[in-house]
Amino acid sequence: MEVVPDTGSTNADLTARAGDGAPHGAVLIADHQRTGRGRLRRSWSAPPGASVALSVLLRPTRTTGWSWLPLVCGIAVADAVRAAGANAVLKWPNDVLVDDLKLAGILVERTQTPAGPAVIIGCGINTTASIGDLPVPTATSIAAVGLGITPLDLVVDVLLRLDRLVTFWGDEANDDLLGDMYSNRCSSLGQRVRAQLADTEVVGVATGIDADGGLLVHTADAEVTVVAGDVVHLRGNH
What we know:
The protein is α+β, with helices and mostly antiparallel strands. It folds into two domains: 2-183, BirA Bifunctional Protein, domain 2; 192-233, SH3 type barrels (Roll), CATH 2.30.30.100. 23% of the residues lie in helices and 32% in strands. The chain has four helices and 14 strands. The strands form three sheets. The chain has a seven-stranded mixed β-sheet, with helices on both faces. Strands 13-12-11-10-14 form a five-stranded antiparallel β-sheet. The longest helix is centred in the C-terminal third of the chain and has 19 residues, at 151-169.
């Protein structure tokens, strides 16, 4: 594990180290990212010291089911926040919300290395940011929700939970149980949602999680499985 005060992107740094032979379980943590990234190529920004970025390198022996890893990380973060005293839930696939506001986001990337394929799990958690420091009005932080836990203690708990969950995921016989664990924490289920895909959108009610972690959406015409996309919870007549 390495902790740095500042870097461009912990995911990018750990990807480079994976290519140089860094081992399974290597962790990089930064108090500030200058060029942090989120899903769908979005930028991830926060003032220095207001958030924690952490990335974990995995070299899984399991060859299937890698699409579960973003969801597994979401469970780890949500449960750590719950243990600290806030009712955290998951918005599919892996945004961690408290009171419908985003506390943490997760970006999982696959990379090819001389030793074979590897996975970088990246997570950004808003920590000490006040309400006025948050980048958007739909965000929140540990400080804003009044959690009595230090950023370090929260990160340690997240990593311990992630370690156990990745081990659990390593046995594909546990996939159904993982699906149940995720569903029990997912606020998207039962909601009317809009999933923005690459060239179209799907609007309907999110009804479940499939065997690969995809979101099942019941539209007016059919049941559609969303495997990647931007999901919005709809309110009112949208």
